[in-house]
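Renewal narrative, Specific Aim 1. Our central claim is that a sequence can be written position by position from structural information alone. The example that follows is taken directly from our test logs and has not been curated for this report. It begins with the structure tokens describing the chain, in the order in which they were read.
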């Protein structure tokens, strides 16, 4: 029987395909329990700390609702409200929180920060997004693909856009471990780093998947089962990069033409938030400045695939619940 009790959840690189599948299965089980109104508040004596050094809608809400459903208390530390890193080191913060809480979520900057927290906390630490990885998102994405396409192995998964950052990296690792055929499609400078590509190729060989890097959107998306994208400028990056990103990544925008080039049943996915229209502050600003109507995905594609996209967002909660429960010792 798989047990993840006491483990940290920092990147999917640390987990075997069986362990990742176990978490997705557990999430599906929790989802069904929630739908059927079956209580699962098995951790009534436990509390979790949620550190957010960057903003969030989905991840924060998913952790809070999941903690509540599991019977736990949660404390949210917002990007300005704690001493972390400013007046108190990561190691000291980890030891303080580890004395009060049974698990700690961290969203912020470098992966080394969440790793240091994990080293000193003495309780499970969960990565809620760093510059390099966003592992809880991948569990939700895989559950969503399974729900919509039936299985994961052998599916052709294409990631369009900046593939060097948290989403591109984590999706490549997840696909490699679970036997999907992963293609990163971008200008070469946006390809994931070589060492990670090489590691993923080894995992993909074992799982029956593959890793491809491609600059041509039509070649990459031909017969794809899943086309995925993310924002072109991530949280924490300077505003100055917008112009260059819009110029260099516009040919990689997900359009109806690309979706029509994919297989007939292809789905579009996005971790969200997405710039598919000008109804956001940044979207409107970029629209005015660069004369554009959308960015990484057209509004038409976004709307057509909204069921998948909002299932994906909902699945953040069920999968995060599975991660917390499994690492805190859930035996269900
Ligand atoms: N996908 C995701 O992590 O969304 P939030 O930034 O809203 O948490
Ligand atoms: N790459 C994005 C993902 C948001 C969920 C960011 O880091 O801002």
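The sequence written for that structure reads:
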């Amino acid at each position: 029987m798989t047990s993840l009790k006491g483990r940290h959840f920092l990147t999917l690189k640390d987990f075997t395909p069986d362990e990742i599948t176990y978490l997705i299965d557990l999430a599906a089980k929790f989802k069904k329990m929630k739908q059927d109104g079956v209580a699962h508040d098995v951790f009534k004596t436990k509390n979790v700390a949620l550190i957010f050094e960057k903003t969030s809608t989905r991840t924060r809400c998913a952790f809070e609702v999941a903690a509540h459903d599991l019977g736990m208390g949660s404390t949210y530390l917002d990007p300005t409200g704690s001493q972390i890193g400013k007046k108190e080191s990561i190691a000291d913060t980890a030891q303080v929180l580890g004395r009060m809480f049974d698990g700690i979520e961290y969203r912020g900057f470098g992966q080394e920060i969440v790793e240091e927290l994990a080293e000193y906390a003495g309780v499970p630490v969960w990565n809620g997004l760093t510059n390099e990885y966003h592992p809880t998102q991948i569990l939700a994405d895989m559950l969503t693909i399974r729900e919509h396409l039936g299985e994961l192995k052998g599916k052709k998964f294409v990631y369009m856009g900046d593939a060097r950052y948290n989403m591109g990296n984590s999706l490549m690792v997840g696909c490699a471990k679970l036997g999907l055929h992963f293609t990163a499609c971008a200008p070469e400078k946006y390809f994931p780093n070589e060492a990670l590509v090489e590691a993923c190729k080894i995992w993909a060989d074992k799982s029956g998947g593959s890793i491809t890097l491609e600059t041509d959107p039509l070649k990459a998306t031909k017969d794809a089962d899943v086309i995925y994208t993310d924002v072109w400028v991530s949280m924490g990056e300077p505003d100055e990069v917008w112009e260059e990103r819009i110029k260099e990544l516009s040919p990689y925008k997900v359009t109806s033409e690309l979706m029509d080039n994919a297989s007939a049943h292809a789905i579009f996915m996005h971790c969200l938030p997405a710039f598919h229209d000008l109804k956001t502050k940044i979207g409107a600003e970029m629209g005015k400045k660069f004369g554009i109507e959308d960015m990484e995905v057209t509004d038409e594609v976004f709307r057509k695939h909204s069921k998948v996209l909002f299932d994906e967002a909902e699945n953040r909660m069920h999968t995060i619940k599975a991660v917390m429960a499994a690492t805190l010792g859930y035996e269900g």
